[in-house]
Design a protein that fits this description.
- By secondary structure, this protein is an alpha+beta fold.
- The chain has two domains: about 90 residues, no CATH class; about 150 residues, OB fold (Dihydrolipoamide Acetyltransferase, E2P), CATH 2.40.50.
- The protein is built from six helices and nine strands.
- The strands form two sheets. Strands 5-6-7-9-8 form a five-stranded mixed β-barrel. A three-stranded antiparallel sheet has the order 1-2-3.
- Strand 2 and strand 3 form a beta hairpin.
- Helix 2 packs antiparallel against helix 3.
- The longest helix is centred in the N-terminal third of the chain and has 23 residues.
- The relative contact order is 0.13.
C-alpha cells in the first residue's frame, strides 16, 4: 500500500473501478449469452442494460480520482461486501431450478396453492372463478400449450375444469412427483418467473399415465392427451389422461415468463 501511496495512486478509486467494471462485465456476459433469463424476467432486461450504462458512466467519473490523495484512511472491509457476490457469481454460475429446489417453498398450480415440505405436497386453497378470464379459451378441439400461453391456459383450466372436459391437449414440462399422489399419476410442471428467481413458483397439471412409476423426476416430456377432471382433497382439478408421451431435451431457458 505504501508503494501505491508514494506513486499517488488512490486505492479507493482503484477498487471502485474494479468493482464497477467487474459487475458491468458480468451483466454484459449474462445478457450476451442469454443466461440473464435464468436470473430475471425478460421485462427486466432494459433495467440491466441501463445499469451497465450507469456503471460505465460511474467508472469514467471515477477515473480522475486515481491520482488524487484519499480524503480518508483506506479500509478494505466495506469493499468485501461487493467483491464476495461478484466472486460467487463466477464460482457458482446460475443453473435452472429443478424439483429439489421446491423443499420449503410455496408454489402455485394454476390457481391452487401447493406447499412442499420435504417429499410431501399438499394441494389446498380456494379456486377463484373468473368466468371473464376463462371464457375466451376454446372448450373443444386440439390445443397446444406453449410458453407464451402457458399461464393463461393453466389458469383457465383450473378455474373451470369441467368446461374444458374432453379437450385434446399438447403440453411440455418436467416430471415432478410427490408421495401424496397415486402411483399412476405425476405432475407435468414448469417454473414460472414473474420478476426474478426469488419469486419463482411451480406450476403444473396432474397427468394420469399407466407407466408413471417408470418416469424419472425432472425428466422433460412432451405429452398429448385428453383433459379430464379428478377429485383431489374433495375438489375437482384438471388432469390429462396421457395418450402419447415423448422425452425431449431440457430447454436452455426452461422457465415460463407471464
Amino acid at each position: 500500500m505504501s508503494f501505491l501511496h508514494t506513486r499517488r495512486l488512490n486505492v479507493d478509486a482503484i477498487l471502485k473501478i474494479l468493482l464497477l467494471g467487474g459487475f458491468a462485465y458480468f451483466f454484459s456476459q449474462t445478457l450476451s449469452s442469454g443466461r440473464a433469463l435464468l436470473y430475471v424476467n425478460p421485462k427486466m432486461i432494459p433495467f440491466i442494460k441501463f445499469g451497465i450504462i450507469a456503471m460505465c458512466f460511474m467508472m469514467a467519473v471515477t477515473l480522475p480520482e486515481l491520482f488524487t490523495i484519499p480524503r480518508r484512511k483506506f479500509r478494505l472491509t466495506p469493499y468485501t461486501i461487493f467483491f464476495i457476490p461478484l466472486l460467487l457469481s463466477v464460482i457458482f454460475p446460475a443453473v435452472a431450478l429443478d424439483s429439489a429446489s421446491l423443499a420449503g417453498r410455496s408454489a402455485d398450480m394454476g390457481g391452487t396453492g401447493v406447499v412442499q415440505d420435504g417429499p410431501q405436497s399438499i394441494i389446498d386453497g380456494d379456486i377463484t372463478l373468473d368466468v371473464d378470464t376463462a371464457q375466451p379459451f376454446p372448450v373443444s378441439g386440439n390445443v397446444v400449450i406453449e410458453e407464451d400461453n402457458y399461464v393463461a391456459w393453466l389458469t383457465a383450466l383450473y378455474q373451470l375444469p369441467e368446461e374444458h372436459l374432453g379437450l385434446d391437449v399438447e403440453i411440455s414440462g418436467f416430471v415432478h412427483k410427490t408421495e401424496d399422489l397415486e402411483p399412476q399419476t405425476f405432475l407435468l410442471s414448469r417454473f414460472i418467473m414473474t420478476c426474478c428467481t426469488a419469486d419463482m413458483q411451480l406450476s403444473g397439471i396432474l397427468c394420469r399415465y399407466d407407466q408413471a412409476e417408470e418416469l424419472t423426476a425432472d425428466t422433460w416430456f412432451r405429452i398429448n392427451g385428453t383433459l379430464a377432471v379428478e377429485l383431489f382433497n374433495n375438489r375437482p382439478i384438471p388432469a390429462i389422461v396421457v395418450d402419447q408421451i415423448t422425452e425431449i431435451e431440457k430447454p436452455e431457458i426452461p422457465y415460463v415468463f407471464p
